[in-house]
Design a protein that fits this description.
mainly alpha, Arc Repressor Mutant, subunit A, 3-stranded antiparallel sheet, 7 helices, 59% helix, 10% strand, disordered N terminus, DNA-binding transcription factor activity, MarR/SlyA-like
């Protein structure tokens, strides 16, 4: 950890509502992008050090981890992560060589390929999940002050009140 990591700069001030050219939704989007960048920057080194994979490979592992007992087609992974299929093929091959994913043909579809986590990957993610979650939380804490948090919360709709019956006819 460098000195700049130990004492991060204060988050930039979020523009006041109604100031500038951007509507609140675009200001919130910019806050979200900055926070995401801060999280990715912190996670890169932690992921490499503890999982020995790249950040993009880590995203694949996380996506597959949300599929208990099953896998996903390569096309689904590419679509969900917004990655080119050719790049994904390389990343999956790296993960397979590391013993973290399996690949198999989809029954009835000679071009379809499904990928899934191995038990080794599940164990590794289980062992490191608390550290990774703390890294995300700390990066968000360091990059978002009260103004940025308020901007983000204003973008997220309120959940429906469970005591209110839905209107209908």
């Amino acid at each position: 950890m460098s000195a700049s990591d130990a004492h991060p700069a204060a988050p930039p001030a979020c523009p006041a509502a109604g100031s500038g050219l951007l509507p609140a939704e675009l200001r919130a989007w910019m806050v979200l992008l900055a926070a995401t960048g801060a999280v990715e920057q912190r996670l890169r080194s932690v992921v490499k050090e503890n999982l020995d994979v790249s950040h993009d490979e880590f995203l694949i592992l996380c996506l597959l981890a949300e599929q208990p007992g099953t896998g996903l087609r390569m096309t689904q992974v590419a679509d969900l992560l917004g990655r080119p299929k050719t790049r994904l093929t390389y990343q999956i091959a790296c993960l397979q060589r590391s013993g973290l994913v399996t690949r198999r043909s989809v029954c009835g579809d000679k071009r379809g390929v499904e990928v899934a986590l191995t038990e080794q990957a599940r164990d590794l993610l289980g062992e490191t999940s608390a550290l990774l979650a703390d890294t995300v939380r700390q990066a968000l804490t360091d990059s978002m002050g009260p103004d940025q948090r308020a901007a983000m919360c204003a973008l997220v709709p309120e959940p429906p009140d469970p005591d209110e019956a839905p209107s209908g006819g």
